[in-house]
Amino acid sequence: MDVIKFGLKYFKRNMPLAIITQIISFVAMAADLMLPLLSQMLIDYAIGNNPSDGRGIFSFLLNGKHGQIHSMKLFFTIAFVFMLLLIGRIILVYIRNVIRQRIGLDLETDLRVATYQKLTQLDSYTISQFNTGELLTTINSDTIMFKELFCRMIPNIFDSIFVLVTAVYLLANINAYLLIIPLIMTPFFVIALMKFKKSAMINYRNIRNSNSRMNLTVQENIEAVRLVRSFTNEEFEMEKFDASNENLKNSYIEQIKLSSKFEVIFSTIKQFAYIGTIAISTLLVIRGYMMVGYLVACSSYVMKIMDVISMINNSLFQVQQQLVSGQKMMNFMNTTSRIPDGQKLLTNKKPHIQFQDASLTIDGNKVLDGINLDIPYGKKIGIVGGTGSGKSVLLESLLRVHDVNNGKILIDGIDIKNYSLESLRNCFSFVFQEVFLFSNTIDSNIAYAEPETDKDNVIEVAKHAQAHNFISSLPDGYETIVGERGLGLSGGQKQRISIARALLKNSSVLILDDSTTALDVETEKKLLQEIKANYPDKTLLISAHRMSSVVDCDEIIYMQDGAIVERGSFKELMELGGHFAYVYNIQEAQKKSVIDFDSLANAAR
């Protein structure tokens, strides 16, 4: 029931139209249930010559005005009413199906929007608890499957119940003995349903899991195509794909086997019901309890009863698949982010940032340890240290990608946890270590923060990021389409585009998280000079492995094991002769060796 309640939250806006559609469906079903009665009248009164007993919904057709019994006029009158009901039913069923499909598409769209919106609200750590195949299945396949529950299965069950009740009433009016067969057969239907229901739930769960694994396998191979080819591991990946594909096939084969058993058992029960009805009806006709036309009508009604009981059972059987999808969606939507949103708006364009004894532990590992840092607006901070020292985590904590466990991070004296995530993150222009470019034009990628900005602004920030020259040299310039994740561009080119994208956002604080590693020293130097010259007032936070990247910063901090072990200006750190000075000297010596080697090579040429 929890899954149904969950779905009703999104279905309720379609409820009025769904109720109207259900009424239309009931009218269509009622018209269909009248047809056997007209068939009975054709046999007994138009073709046959039996006296009217004055009973029945259409007894008014036998009053002589519409034709005498056993006459062509009566035949055509009944045939006309038959066709009228048949055409009316067809039109109503068409209208019902079109509206239900429209409601279904609306619900599917709402569910997909809700799940995608939830995805964007969850923090990165929470999202990492789901594999990509699972997320794709939830947002795509599960939304389609779950909407079927409300737009096809439940309405079909209501239709079936309406037909069942009406057919039983009409059958009882003809002769109550004819209810014996449905009453005998119904327990067999119920027992069979209970037997298959549990197996169906398990099987549909296996199908969904197989689909998720298949999606994950394909997605990983799309992203890692270059890695796979460089290791010539195509055969191994093909074996993985074949295994996933085989599991998916076997899951569907199990479903087919189960459905086939289900269909055989219910078809057998229906055949027994049909034969039994013919036998009882024939006996009643022979004994004179009813006319021969009723035999046709009764067999039709009994078969309709068996059909709708079978349809209800079959729907309940298939509902298990929708409930599995609904349960997965409900679990995903009920997932809570570890980063709750605040209420206060951050409107100050000159934020003052402070770390007060900030510490962070992730999965038992202390990644930040007692960070104290004061960053007034406009200050330039360099953050250096070895791999795993906590540089990126420190910067990401400003955007609340992670929330510190102990201590505080303040902006203008207020804990950043009190600010709304949107206003907080708008305060920062962040360039991440791993560059992501969308499958779009270079112009659109740079203008991502402001899609309607002028082309001149895009060109200006590209120049500042040292990207304009190489972009202009491309055949289509700024209109060049880059592949997913920037395939087709070098690492340095992607980094410069991502820096241009951050500059165009023009936030108060610019963060470069080890985002110049793919640039040569000269290009990096020009880029940083351009940023400092054209954005002198902005707060600048630079994380880098290359010590030369931060020499001009107001303050440099050296991190190790999540803690700040050295801090000061470049001059102060060099005089200290600690970790920073040691690494800087090594890098400068390596740089000199490269320059000397290049000079020798040029001389040899």
Overall description:
The chain has 18 helices and ten strands. The protein has helices spanning 2-11, 15-47, 72-121, 124-127, 132-174, 180-223, 225-230, 234-286, 292-333, 391-398, 421-425, 442-446, 455-464, 468-473, 491-505, 521-534, 570-576, 579-604; strands spanning 353-362, 365-375, 380-385, 406-411, 414-415, 428-431, 509-513, 539-544, 555-560, 563-568. The protein is elongated and about 120 Å long. The termini are far apart.
State the low-pLDDT regions, or none: none
CA distance, first residue to last residue: 81 Å
Major sheet: order of its strands? 6-7-8-3-9-10
Largest sheet: 6 strands, mixed
Q: What overall form do the CA principal axes indicate?
A: elongated
Q: Average pLDDT, to the nearest integer?
A: 84
* Strand-pairing-aware structural class: alpha/beta
Percentage beta strand? 5-15%
What is the share of helical residues?
55-70%
Work out the helix count: 18
Task: Lay out the secondary structure.
Layout: H1 2-11, H2 15-47, H3 72-121, H4 124-127, H5 132-174, H6 180-223, H7 225-230, H8 234-286, H9 292-333, E1 353-362, E2 365-375, E3 380-385, H10 391-398, E4 406-411, E5 414-415, H11 421-425, E6 428-431, H12 442-446, H13 455-464, H14 468-473, H15 491-505, E7 509-513, H16 521-534, E8 539-544, E9 555-560, E10 563-568, H17 570-576, H18 579-604
Parallel strand pairs: 3-8, 3-9, 6-7, 7-8
Antiparallel strand pairs: 1-2, 1-4, 4-5, 9-10
Summarize the structure.
This protein has 605 residues and is α/β, with parallel strands linked by helices. It has helices at 2-11, 15-47, 72-121, 124-127, 132-174, 180-223, 225-230, 234-286, 292-333, 391-398, 421-425, 442-446, 455-464, 468-473, 491-505, 521-534, 570-576, 579-604, and strands at residues 353-362, 365-375, 380-385, 406-411, 414-415, 428-431, 509-513, 539-544, 555-560, 563-568.
